[in-house]
């Protein structure tokens, strides 16, 4: 017996309205905000040491090291390419992989701007959680070192609000490194 797949489906008509996906709309708004973020204006004072009301923010620095069974170039591309980012984050992503370009990850929960991009070697970003004070960013630097059969990644992130240090560290481990290794099979040697 043959059953038509589209049977019972309501298909859009010529005059029907386009429905928007909330996660995509949210990313577009966050991306626009990230592109216009006053924290990136070099003529303004550094607001990373203070919130908007002038209260100091106690911060910590994070250093992590991971090994990936892939080339430095592949790993670099994965960290800046929209399709690859969507694959391992399993979320809607928006990214402009150029110096000064913005990124929005995890449906708007992580945003920032690229400050420096050296293909296969280094990525420097202004990086923030949505819940951090408006305009406040940490600086995340990812260095890649190509070895014979793998790539060593070193993350140095400065200016993480003290109360978010553990969440940030766990987020990198779980949602970046472990997810990339699982998605692209970069964590296990078979032979």
UniProtKB/TrEMBL annotation:
<dbReference type="Pfam" id="PF08327">
    <property type="entry name" value="AHSA1"/>
</dbReference>
<dbReference type="InterPro" id="IPR013538">
    <property type="entry name" value="ASHA1/2-like_C"/>
</dbReference>
<keyword id="KW-0346">Stress response</keyword>
<comment type="similarity">
    <text>Belongs to the AHA1 family.</text>
</comment>
<protein>
    <submittedName>
        <fullName>Activator of 90 kDa heat shock protein ATPase-like protein 1</fullName>
    </submittedName>
</protein>
<dbReference type="InterPro" id="IPR023393">
    <property type="entry name" value="START-like_dom_sf"/>
</dbReference>
<feature type="domain" description="Activator of Hsp90 ATPase homologue 1/2-like C-terminal">
    <location>
        <begin position="70"/>
        <end position="184"/>
    </location>
</feature>
């Amino acid at each position: 017996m043959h059953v038509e797949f589209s049977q019972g489906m309501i298909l859009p008509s010529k005059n029907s309205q386009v429905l928007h996906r909330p996660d995509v709309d949210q990313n577009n708004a966050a991306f626009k905000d990230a592109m216009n973020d006053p924290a990136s204006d070099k003529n303004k004072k550094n607001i990373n040491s203070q919130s908007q009301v002038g209260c100091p923010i106690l911060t910590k620095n994070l250093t992590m090291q991971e090994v990936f069974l892939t080339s430095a170039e592949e790993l670099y591309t994965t960290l800046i390419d929209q399709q690859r980012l969507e694959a391992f984050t399993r979320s809607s992503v928006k990214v402009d992989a150029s110096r000064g370009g913005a990124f929005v990850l995890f449906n708007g929960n992580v945003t920032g701007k690229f400050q420096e991009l050296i293909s296969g070697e280094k990525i420097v970003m202004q990086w923030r959680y949505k819940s951090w004070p408006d305009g406040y960013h940490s600086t995340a630097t990812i260095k890649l070192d190509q070895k014979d059969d793998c790539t060593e990644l070193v993350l140095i992130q400065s200016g993480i609000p003290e109360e978010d240090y553990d969440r940030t560290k766990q987020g990198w481990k779980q949602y970046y490194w472990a997810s990339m290794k699982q998605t692209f099979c970069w964590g296990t040697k078979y032979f």
